[in-house]
Design brief:
By secondary structure, this protein is α+β, with helices and mostly antiparallel strands. The protein is built from five helices and seven strands, in the order E-H-H-H-E-E-E-H-E-H-E-E. The structure holds coenzyme A.
């Protein structure tokens, strides 16, 4: 799938809100905000992200200009971490893999880290396809599951 990354526009936020309040996506991501549907929290979160020089966020755009989702990098040097979310209607077509490849080509920081719920098979495949390797296992409280679950930590060094 062909995707491009561009700066996040105000008009993208309504799409991100719809995508990140999808119950299936929330369950999959697991480590979400306590109440992802809280619009005031969502707006404040995105206002912070867009103005924080230590955070890079990009809109993932398809060939017809459609907003497929978002991707980003955050965290201090040496602990930079990637994150991404693709709208459910676009799943399984290579969008996340293409978006992460494009991000890795644009961002020189290494190592880069990622974390995923151990049962988030799609996300783990995306990370594996982009060269991340498993470097740890943790337990963490997942708001979307209401309990502690297994989490996989991955790192990209090259
Ligand atoms: C995880 C997510 C980013 C995957 O996006 P996507 O665009 O569907 O991913 P891709 O199409 O690039 O798929 C990559 C691989 O994962 C597989 N895959 C995708 N979703 C899957 C699922 N639910 N179960 C099993 N395999 C899955 C694809 O078949 C593909 O396999 P392949 O490498 O053998 O071809 C997307 O489902 C999503 O945004 N989920 C909600 C938010 C989330 O979980 N973010 C990541 C938090 S760590």
């Amino acid at each position: 799938m062909d995707v491009t990354l561009r700066e996040v526009r105000e008009s993208d936020l309504a799409v991100f809100y719809r995508q990140t309040t999808d119950p299936e996506g929330i369950r999959m991501a697991a480590f979400t905000a306590e109440d992802p549907s809280d619009r005031a929290r969502f707006d404040a979160h995105w206002a912070r992200l867009r103005h924080d020089p230590a955070v890079l966020t990009r809109t993932v755009v398809g060939t017809r200009g459609e907003v497929l989702g978002h991707i980003g990098v955050f965290g201090p040097p040496g602990e930079r971490e990637v994150t991404y979310w693709i709208g459910r209607e676009y799943w399984g077509r290579g969008a996340a893999t293409a978006a992460l490849r494009a991000l890795l080509a644009a961002v020189p920081d290494r190592p880069l880290h990622a974390q995923a719920a151990a049962d988030n098979v799609g996300s783990l495949r995306v990370l594996d396809a982009c060269g991340f390797t498993v470097t740890g296992h943790e337990r963490g409280y997942a708001n979307a599951r209401g309990e502690e679950i297994d989490e996989v930590v991955l790192t990209l060094t090259g």
